Amino acid sequence: MNPSTALATVLVDELLRGGVTDAVVAPGSRSAPVALALAAAERAGRLTLHVRIDERTAAFLALGLARASGRPVPVLTTSGTATAHLHAAVLEADASGVPLVALTADRPPELRATGANQTIDQPGLYGGAVRFTADVGVPEAGREEQQNRYWRALVARALLVARGIVSGDPGPVQLDLAFREPLLPDGTAALEGPWAGRADGSPWTVGEPGTPAPAPLPSSPARTVVVAGDAPPALGRAAAELARRQGWPVVAEPSSGAWDAGLRGGALLLGTAGWLAAHRPERVLVVGRPTLSRPVNALLTDPAVRVEVVPAGSRWADAGRSASAVGGLPEPGGPVDPDWAGAWTAATDRIGAAVDAVLAGASSTAARLARDVVAAAPAGGLLVLGSSTPVRDVDRLAVPRGDLTVLANRGVAGIDGTVSTAAGAALAHRRAGGGPAVALMGDLTFLHDLTGLLLGAGEPAPELTVVVPDNDGGGIFAQLEPGRPQYAADYDRVFGTPHGRDLVAVARALGWAAGEVPAAADLPRVLAAGGPRVLVLRTDQRAEAELAGRLREAAATALRGE
Q1: In terms of CATH, what superfamily is 224-350?
Q2: Does pLDDT of 479 surpass 80?
Q3: I need a surface site. Which of 103, 147, 281, 418 has the fewest CB within 10 A?
Q4: Is the dihedral of CA 395, 397, 402, 407 positive or negative?
Q5: 361-559 has which CATH code?
Q6: 347 within 8 A of 283, measured Cβ to Cβ
Q7: Rg for the chain (alpha carbons), in Å?
Q8: Model confidence, pTM
Q9: Quick check: 185 and 5 in contact, CB under 8 A?
Q10: What is the DSSP secondary structure assignment for residue 75, as one 8-state letter?
């Protein structure tokens, strides 16, 4: 084997030994040795390979695969600006603790800083967003045994770090791979002799989680509310179980893992100032990372409330700088105030009834669609929520469900790569025995990642239905300060950004079945059929903003006088 082929073949073998089952490739020349090694591994039945022409799409596809499977997923690019296109997905993986592995092919040192084609300064490109980075160095002839140990140890370390072994803080890693020509194999790539791995097929270095759990927080006081933000499912489920045993109310975001234990419309409840003043908790137990609701943020900065945080890893959320303690989930036991907790449940029941009454007359709205899509999604399926308005509509209006897996890119909460994230998560979810996937996202989020719809010949198609409420632009701004009348002169140009595109035609042009959203009664049948499919509902930005105001007023009216 020539040196480039040797590095690529050893690298891929060690990735597979370390538990990698999927890899994503964006085509390129300098990355050819690794791309061919990955293709050979797929032919041997050791790997599922996914190919995308756009590096950003490839990175978010890998992110979705890793998020849904819990396994490290490598994404391979060629050198130059191709590597920069991974950055948004790396940032999301960093903030949400996803084991993404960036394999960035590079020029050898003698071509760097010379103006050579497709050459940038790649080592350390992602800064502090990666848990580990290595400039692997150029493979050379004559040092086979030493290089084999080095490469295998480096790959094993990268995978262990990405999984959060020892640190308890999983996240992205980068291996920058410099190759000299020849880049293509010139013989049989056999892993024998000096290129062999461990004889029993195990990784070069193994590791199991060993970070001690933080000490539990105290179990009192009785009037405790659990606020569950975006978190690993296991942590969310544990928090939900503790809250059930203690009788504590739960305000849970859809991607928290605790959503089914949460109060419907918890954000609307917290936004009703008079009711909250009469039922204020003594303590808020924050689990994971809440990001969706201004009323939740206001509660967490209330000086009359003690805030304690249960983080998902070594870092914790404290946007209001108000946390008084950080630790593990409290042990069950201690005082309970069932009358106080029951008042929270009764209040959200009234809010739910008021919301449904308003939505009954608002069938062609994104808010109604969010509630109905959640209700209609097939049991055992996957629900992926786009940032901006859709995830907030689900948070405020939908009836929480425990028989769905709910994912959202809430680490950085960008709209980047949402179609690709959903596609990757749908593929991983289905392979694990789950049902069809549904993704709910706004029109700009959809347009932002159109290459996520582009499937090359032979690429597996996800059983994914993408549901798009189309308000012809950035409708969330109509519900925020920029939507106020005094900014109307510039609203459309710099906030509303109408695109004027027929999204059904756009989806069909990229090879997906597409049509209008059916009646609510037909949604269960359509969503259970899987995909790939795109469904579009035309809505109006200003009407959605007005409806949001009516929903808040309905919630307040339902609680008035209590």
Answers
A1: TPP-binding domain (3.40.50.1220)
A2: no
A3: 147
A4: negative
A5: 3.40.50.970
A6: no
A7: 25
A8: 0.94
A9: yes
A10: E
